[in-house]
Amino acid sequence: MLRTLSRVSELPIVVKQLQKNAAQSGVAKTNNYATEATVQVNRPFKLHRLDEGPEMTVQLTKEEALKYYTQMQTIRRIETSAGNLYKEKIIRGFCHLYSGQEACAVGMKAAMRDVDNIISAYRVHGWTYLMGVSPLGVLAELTGMKSGCARGKGGSMHMYSPNFYGGNGIVGAQVPLGAGVGLACKYKGNGGMCLALYGDGAANQGQVFEAYNMAYLWKLPVIFVCENNNYGMGTSSERASCNTDYYTRGDALPGIWVDGMDVLAVRSATEFAIKYVNTHGPLVMETNTYRYSGHSMSDPGTSYRTREEIQEVRQKRDPITSFKELCIELGLITTDEVKAIDLKVRKEVDEATALAKSDTELPLSHLWTDVYSHNLEKKIRGTNGFDIDHIQERKGVNH
Amino acid sequence: MLRSRLTQAACTAKRALSTTPNMLAVKQMTVRDGLNSALDDELARDDRVFLLGEEVAQYDGAYKVSRGLWKKYGDKRIIDTPITEMGFAGIAVGAAMAGLRPICEFMTFNFSMQAIDHVINSAAKTFYMSAGAVNVPIVFRGPNGAAAGVAAQHSQCFAAWYAHCPGLKVVSPYDTEDARGLLKSAIRDSDPVVVLENELMYGVAFPVDDNVTDVDFLVPIGKAKIMKPGKDITIVSHSKAVETSLLAAAELAKKGIDAEVINLRSIRPLDMETIFASVRKTHHLITVENGWPQHGVGAEICARFMEDQHFFELDAPVWRCCGVDVPTPYAKTLEINAIPQVHDVLAAALKVLGSKAGKK
């Protein structure tokens, strides 16, 4: 096991409340179980230019446990479904799966407040779901259908929702954009901050360092999150970076290394980071994680790494399995509840998948709809002349 | 020498339009002050508006366009950036996505190439990609086009580059009225707008009436302006080439040719209605620009005629007067000859008019 597990009953410091009635979970069981537990983060945080780090000892309620497990499992199911849809040639173009990295997003989301924002790169199906889009909204966007969260016009890499700024297809470009969202938070004085996510591949883009620099100078409330899954496409981090300790690469910016396969560690680090950036300015957080699939669906993911390596992570470090085992061990979730969640998630995603397949694309008129939010030209040139009218249906949020 | 030519051009333009006899009493304002006052107005009008770029605050702007604004509005609204175009352009776009109204100054548009990904991929496309959810109200501005004696890397026109891209609006002011009114419209617009100023015009003063200095004065984006009406040939241009065109029109007048000079003001949207209406009258058209010919603004205007009924209004082919198709050289004589001169415009007009020119 990765984690020092503590049976709740063995730890006097643990807040343990017995709940007689388990009916609220919908499971007809009469066993007593804990509603809250204290958990020790197993793999220590590593710190750069910080005297104190995140809490190693964290609380986990039953409600949270159920929520995180459901969220991670939903992301996994969405990605499995997306992979299948791609193989069926229903999803076109790009399709970057998040399987294996679920604890990063769920842990960060758990720490985010209503005023906080997030922007990421192209592996965003999971984030889109966490930021309020239904599985159908995600899957139908992938199938290019009108129920998609961008009505099928954005595709795999361009999904948005309130406080979620995409979904960016240009590796590294989202990092200064995220710093800009942070600038807006500070400018408006709303107490919010922005998580700007990028991978170990994007970590070498020059504009990432440009963003670090200005964010530090201007004390912007931004957490630069390097989701290090060890490979930028097919290039291992060692082959791409002179320094693979990504949490130290902000130079003057403090950094935290966190086990990205541990949802509670990520949550704890993010809670710490949110407080930090709102007081002191930006920070770099590296979440050490792993992706099971290739870079995208066209990459089998086995020419630059071994099948054994992938299997080993799946067996020993899987973020969902390890969290599930922890929760069962702690008595926060029962195996029956796990089964019920798995069934519910599978059903929900399967239904969404069916709808995403059977849905229709937008009518052709949407090809020339919403190019400008303040349209000044009546006509848009079609393939064969200035013969189509620019339709403006929406105005966007910024007016 | 340059200054006197510019004043002459301005007066030519004004004379053509003026209906008041006491035009000499009209207030003069430089393009720089037109831009500066536009920034000042809009910063005062909307708290979400802020200016960022290299040397915009404490240095008062590399070309002094933002002079005095830092003292007036402080660090929050007037932000000096390091020399890091891609980074600060990205930050500006992110801030616009999150509800602010950034004005992102490029010290010159030559440096915007470092950041062109954010102008196009991050700013221009987001509204469409998000199916109308996230609009990006941002202004990218700075001097564009050939300056004087600064060689190839600092001398080129980006009008065609940016106007190529759906999702962007592109304006290219010529005089003070244009600069002030277009910049104010750009700042108030809810889409990304590229404002291509001209360094050589910053110090040039133009007459402005009270209407132009009014805080609510706006020049609509997407509308061209007839600088000098005429009936024999239409000359379409933008930015500093408007001056060349006006001077050429004055020379043509000496030959009895009455040229109509159109200042495009906006490159995207391109106001073809005004050009078409002019050609219905003149039946002859030349385009004048300081940018390169291939896929340029003139090339687009030619194509629009080819595809439209107005093709049949033309009595002669449309002709382009453009920058020479080479990187801009440093040596003075070579540099001068790299962009269209008055005699080039004159020659083009006479060529297009052909035998009709002699009859005027």
UniProtKB/TrEMBL annotation, chain A:
Reactions that this protein is recorded to catalyse: N(6)-[(R)-lipoyl]-L-lysyl-[protein] + pyruvate + H(+) = N(6)-[(R)-S(8)-acetyldihydrolipoyl]-L-lysyl-[protein] + CO2
Cofactor names: thiamine diphosphate
Keyword Aminoacyl-tRNA synthetase set for record: no
UniProt keyword list: Oxidoreductase, Pyruvate, Thiamine pyrophosphate, Transit peptide
InterPro entries tied to this protein: DH_E1, PDH_E1_Alpha_Subunit, Pyrv_DH_E1_asu_subgrp-y, THDP-binding
Domain Dehydrogenase E1 component: residue ranges: 71-362
UniProt keyword annotation of Cytoplasm present: no
Biological process, per Gene Ontology: pyruvate decarboxylation to acetyl-CoA
Enzyme class: oxidoreductase
GO MF annotation: an example: pyruvate dehydrogenase (acetyl-transferring) activity
UniProt-listed Pfam families: E1_dh
Enzyme Commission designation: 1.2.4.1
Function: The pyruvate dehydrogenase complex catalyzes the overall conversion of pyruvate to acetyl-CoA and CO(2).
Protein name: Pyruvate dehydrogenase E1 component subunit alpha
Species: Drosophila grimshawi (Hawaiian fruit fly)
TrEMBL record, chain B:
Primary location group: mitochondrion
Catalytic reaction annotation: N(6)-[(R)-lipoyl]-L-lysyl-[protein] + pyruvate + H(+) = N(6)-[(R)-S(8)-acetyldihydrolipoyl]-L-lysyl-[protein] + CO2
CC terms in the record's Gene Ontology section: mitochondrion
Keywords noted in UniProt: Metal-binding, Mitochondrion, Oxidoreductase, Potassium, Pyruvate, Thiamine pyrophosphate, Transit peptide
Domain of life: Eukaryota
GO molecular function, one term: pyruvate dehydrogenase (acetyl-transferring) activity
UniProt EC number: 1.2.4.1
Annotated localization: Mitochondrion
Matches recorded under CDD domains: TPP_PYR_E1-PDHc-beta_like (cd07036)
Any Gene Ontology biological process: pyruvate decarboxylation to acetyl-CoA
InterPro entries: PDHB_mito-type, THDP-binding, Transketo_C/PFOR_II, Transketolase-like_Pyr-bd, Transketolase_C
Cofactor or coenzyme needed: thiamine diphosphate
Entries under NCBIfam families matching the protein: PRK09212.1, PRK11892.1
Function: The pyruvate dehydrogenase complex catalyzes the overall conversion of pyruvate to acetyl-CoA and CO2.
Name of the protein: Pyruvate dehydrogenase E1 component subunit beta
